[in-house]
Amino acid sequence: MDKERKLLIAGNWKMNKTVAEAIDLVDGLVRELANVKEVDIVVCPPFTALHAVSKKVLDTQVRLGAQTMNENGYGAFTGEVNAGMLKEFSVRYVILGHSERRQYYAETNALIAKKALAAHAAALKPIVCVGETLAEREAGKAEAVIGTQVKGSLAGLSAAQMEETVIAYEPVWAIGTGKTATSAQAQEIHLFIRETLVQMFGESVAKKVRILYGGSVKPGNAREIMSQPDVDGALVGGAALEVRSFSDIVKNSI
Ligand code: PGA
Question: Which of 90, 118, 158, 251 has the least C-beta neighbours within 10 A?
Answer without folding.
Answer: 158
